[in-house]
Amino acid sequence: MANFSRRDFLKIGGAALLGLAGTRFIPKQEEFFFEAPLLWHGSRSYKNIAITYDDCNSIVRFHKVEALLNEFPEFKVTFFPIGLNIPDFQNKDKGIWKRLIEKGHEIGYHTYEHVNIQVMSPVAAIMDFDRWQAALVDALEMDYPTRFVRPPYNILSPTLDILCQERGLVAAEFSIGGGGAPDVVLRAIQKTKGGDIVQMHIRTEDYESSKLAFPWLKENNWDLVTMSKLYDDYLREQVNADGCDVEAGNELTRTCVE
Ligand SMILES: [Zn+2]
Q: How close is the Cα of 153 to the center of ligand 1, in Å?
């Protein structure tokens, strides 16, 4: 388990305040306590973008998003459901999660009950992840290598850092907030430089944003990819890049200085 110094905790105070004040945008910091892999966006050199859907609270709206995705079979997305919704959806639509995996979509961790990971002890967070993972494996009826965590409220914390290191997870933040009016979200997506991570939820407005964005992405030859694809492309570029702030091991996955 990682060691935490008092200095680390002092630094965390600022991040915690930022997390409470405005969860949508957490600025990159020069000196940062987070040591686990952390992704704000992918490589700017690939013509791809990752759309993510958090919480997954309504199966009715979830089915609408799935139906929309079915119209674009080459497009893959990442869902970050809370654990409670995994058996709930499975009870209402048996095989739903396995079906999404078989269609090439990805599933990531978002805590079992939408609790701020910052207030959990490291042991509690690891237990929470294991509970969430067990629910997913149960629903899928097969093992599943979960790679990403989207922390509730997007709050980065020392506990999240430890959890990522203990369970080999990558913390997934985002570079485009998808929660606004659909035309505003579409314009933000249309300005993508490539490699952007878009955060949405399974809300009506996010469904409408997706309905506007998918045809535009397709017409303009953008790939809509899972977090894993975005991350793997990013790692490939980091290995070869000049001028990036990369070292060895975990550092390889840190955000490159642009
Ligand atoms: Zn959430």
A: 6
Q: Distance from the CA of 232 to the center of ligand 1, in angstroms?
A: 24
| Cα 55 to ligand 1 centre (Å) | 5
Nearby residues for ligand 1 (ion, Cβ within 5 Å): 54-55, 152
CATH 3.20.20.370 fits 34-249, yes or no: yes
Q: Give 101 Cα–ligand 1 centroid separation in angstroms.
A: 20
Closest CA to 255 of 51, 52, 37, 33: 37
Q: Cα of 111 to ligand 1 centre, how many Å?
A: 9
pLDDT per residue as tens digits for the range 58-97: 999 999 999 999 999 999 999 999 999 999 999 999 999 9
DSSP assignment, residue 152?
G
pLDDT beyond 70 at 8: no
In tens, the pLDDT along 31-61 reads: 578 999 999 999 999 999 999 999 999 999 9
Q: Where are the domains of the chain?
A: 34-249
